[in-house]
Amino acid sequence: MPANADKPEKIAPLRPRRPCPECGNPSERAYFPFCSERCKNIDLNRWLSGSYVLPGRPVDEDDESPSS
Prior knowledge:
mainly alpha, 2 helices, elongated
């Protein structure tokens, strides 16, 4: 058995640690890009409540009617 079998090898991170977009703390692998489940849920709530809006072209009423 090799002498270093008891010691875990250093594993290179898959991606660099970045600050959490909600609070600025370092991100955690399990919640990437967030630092915790709390920050992840805050962001999800903002998407679901309509706080975040993606820009797009205005929709005309004619565009909304189903075409036959």
